[in-house]
TrEMBL record, chain A:
Organism for this UniProt entry: Kutzneria viridogrisea
Membrane-spanning segments: 12-30, 42-61, 98-116, 178-198, 257-275, 281-298, 319-337, 343-364, 376-396, 408-428
Name assigned to this protein: ABC-2 type transport system permease protein
Keyword terms: Membrane, Transmembrane, Transmembrane helix
Superkingdom classification of source: Bacteria
Pfam families for the chain: DUF6297
Keyword RNA-binding in annotation: no
Record carries keyword Transmembrane: yes
UniProtKB/TrEMBL annotation, chain B:
Taxonomic lineage from the root: Bacteria, Bacillati, Actinomycetota, Actinomycetes, Pseudonocardiales
Name of this chain's protein: ABC-type multidrug transport system ATPase subunit
Species this chain originates from: Kutzneria viridogrisea
Ranges for domain ABC transporter: 3-202
UniProt cross-references to PANTHER family, sorted A to Z: SKFA PEPTIDE EXPORT ATP-BINDING PROTEIN SKFE (PTHR43158)
CDD domains: ABC_DR_subfamily_A
Gene3D superfamilies hit by this protein: P-loop containing nucleotide triphosphate hydrolases
Keywords (A to Z) from UniProt: ATP-binding, Nucleotide-binding
Length: 433, 202
């Protein structure tokens, strides 16, 4: 115990913690340097703080309301589950997760306010909204929710994320509504999520957690893509164009991610006000990529599991071309919706289309090969695993390349051809061939 | 010759799983692989499917080297291996339609086909909700429902009840009668005795 304490208090951990804390504090002590980096020569946006607060509250709500705290390992359930301890454990976990999210929301809001400044009339409403939303999030997450309520819960973050588009009185209205909802949850009896979870739920939560941990440990991001849910269309694969039907079914069976897509769209509309030095084409492209990738998870499953791929007799090329056609519909819809904020520009259309190809390239890449680390000595560093970084960046590389072309070259036939070339490369060339 | 192998050997570490193995299985014949756990049955099946390179020797499947990465070879060989899997969100009907409509020349996936596997009452239930035995039956249906010249089965009797094992025997017999080469690794002696023309005990 003494050795452990010595390691924690005096050892390398302390140095690491101090460095991280120091870095996190720099916006408050080197504000001018941060302003220069974030804003360049552009003026500050005093409403950026509230925009970030609302977005962070939306993301906090979404992540806590997944109720990832509801899990217990099979060993615990087998050998140490004879008292009331399981509910206490999960409630403690919930409180810890909630407090951490609250801290992060407060921090990112404070940093944004420090860099951009903060209009005085937003301070009371910002503080009130933070307090009541934090309370409502905790109260909602600790209750078990039947399926219809869960659907409604998914839509709540959209309300928060859209709030910055409204005028000041509407924010007070939102604060009042959140307060009312919190009061309802306090006084209306409900079942605790921790207490009502059965063994199957607990093990399911534990399995998901292990999958996430392993995926993060091995940087296997594709394993985190969402599984499909059954749909009530028994004849959906009957008829011609079965590959197209399969890809469409893969998209529809993940329709629950539509709220996340909406949330991303609102974030993309808002973020250029927070980080104005970054061009709109980057936000549009990256937003389209991350909004679309959950819908391509079925393609990723086929690439990762040979036993699933054997159910389809088509060639890989046919599959990729079909997938990119379907995903193009999503990314062009993305361009059309975000166009209300950015305008319907050709560069926006091109980068959104390129995002579809980048998604296909990402989800069809093989699993990470740790034999190909490609370690390269870098001056000032020890070694950089360039090969591993290249594998991780496969997919996003074409999007970043295309966005850079659109950002830095004037729009011309050559620019369009360059983007079209990247599109073709992403679809036609199998990653790591 | 459907399946032939000359002087085939696979080494695992310092030991050889099998060595100097010669095979010659003609169309319409069944080769059964038997042996204790870890004796190399699945490894030999992987060599025949081209997902594992043998340490020495060579394999020919209908005159070509097996390579699962080549679409033409995948069309020729149908398999039930350790890595066979189901889409949890799709029903048996959707699985079979996906298969038969994407492989040219496949017969229609009709009610009768599901009835033979005992899955007709569960045709529209998502695979994630099926029992282990029903999932196995669906995987077996998937292996035989499309045209193939080679059928590789790795312990197909796993999770099947008595009726399921009888159906499995019928299924292998039917594949043989259609002229396919069947290679089956099994611990189920009744199956081996019923369907095998050749047996290799590893």
């Amino acid at each position: 115990m003494k050795t452990l304490l010595r390691n924690v208090i005096l050892g390398e951990w302390l140095v690491g913690y101090l460095m991280v804390i120091g870095l996190l504090c720099t916006p408050f002590f080197q504000t001018d340097s941060w302003r220069h980096t974030v804003l360049g020569s552009l003026p500050a946006q005093p409403t950026a703080g509230v925009a970030v607060l609302c977005l962070a509250l939306a993301l906090g709500w979404r992540s806590l309301l997944r109720r990832d705290f509801v899990w217990l390992g099979p060993a615990r359930l087998t050998w140490d589950d004879f008292g009331p301890g399981r509910v206490r454990t999960m409630n403690r976990r919930l409180l810890g997760g909630w407090a951490l999210r609250l801290l992060v929301v407060a921090y990112v809001t404070a940093v944004t306010a420090q860099v951009h400044g903060w209009r005085p009339e937003f301070v009371p409403v910002g503080c009130a909204l933070l307090a009541v939303t934090a309370a409502l999030t905790l109260l909602a997450a600790r209750r078990a929710a039947p399926a219809p309520v869960r659907w409604a819960e998914q839509a709540v973050p959209l309300l928060f994320a859209a709030a910055p588009l409204a005028v000041l009185p509407a924010w007070w209205g939102l604060t009042a509504a959140v307060t009312l909802a919190a009061l309802v949850l306090v006084f209306v009896p409900g079942r605790s999520a921790a207490a009502s979870a059965g063994r199957v739920d607990l093990l399911e939560g534990w399995n998901s957690r292990v999958l996430r941990q392993v995926s993060v440990a091995f940087m296997d991001v594709m394993a985190l893509l969402p599984p499909g849910r059954p749909l009530p269309f028994p004849r959906s694969l009957s008829g011609r164009f079965v590959v197209l039907r399969f890809v469409l079914l893969g998209v529809l069976s993940r329709a629950r991610y539509l709220t996340l897509t909406g949330l991303l769209a609102l974030a993309v509309v808002m973020l250029p006000h927070v980080l104005p030095a970054t061009g709109a084409v980057w936000w549009l492209g990256l937003g389209a990529f991350f909004a679309t990738i959950p819908y391509a998870a079925a393609l990723s499953e086929l690439s990762r599991v040979p036993g699933l791929r054997r159910w389809l007799g088509c060639t890989d090329m046919e599959l990729r071309v079909t997938a990119v056609c379907v995903l193009l519909v999503i990314t062009i819809a993305w361009w059309a919706v975000t166009g209300f904020a950015f305008g319907w520009t050709l560069s926006g259309l091109l980068v959104s289309a390129l995002a579809a190809a980048a998604v296909v390239r990402t989800v069809t890449k093989p699993m990470l090969d740790f034999d190909k680390l490609g370690e390269v000595a870098v001056p000032g560093m020890t070694v950089a695993p360039v090969g591993l970084i290249a594998q991780l960046a496969t997919g996003l590389d074409v999007l970043v390349g295309g966005a850079a072309v659109l950002q830095f070259l004037p729009m011309s036939a050559i620019t369009v051809l360059a983007v079209a070339g990247l599109f073709g490369f992403a679809v036609w060339r199998r990653p790591h061939e | 010759m459907g399946v032939s192998a000359n002087n085939l050997g696979v080494r695992a570490g310092e030991d050889w799983l099998f060595r100097e193995l010669d095979l010659a299985v003609a169309e319409g014949e069944c080769l059964a692989l038997t042996g204790s756990n870890g004796s190399g049955k699945s490894t030999l099946l992987r060599c025949l499917y081209g997902t594992q390179r043998p340490t020495e020797g060579q394999v020919r499947i209908f005159g070509q080297a097996p390579d699962e990465r080549v679409p033409e070879f995948r069309r020729l060989a149908s398999v039930l291996m350790d890595d066979s899997a189901l889409f949890d969100e799709l029903s048996p009907r959707q699985h079979l339609e996906l298969l038969t409509r994407s492989f040219p020349g496949s017969p229609e996936a009709d009610q009768e086909l599901f009835a033979t596997a005992g899955l007709d009452a569960r045709m529209d239930v998502p695979a994630g909700k099926l029992s282990a035995g029903q999932r196995r039956r669906l995987l077996l249906l998937g292996a035989i429902a499309r045209p193939h010249q080679l059928l590789l089965l790795d312990e197909p009797e796993r999770a099947l009840d008595a009726a399921g094992r009888e159906w499995l025997v019928e299924l292998v017999r039917a594949a043989k009668s259609r002229g396919a080469v069947v290679v089956v690794a099994s611990h189920h002696l009744a199956l081996v005795e019923d369907v095998a023309d050749w047996t290799v005990d590893l």
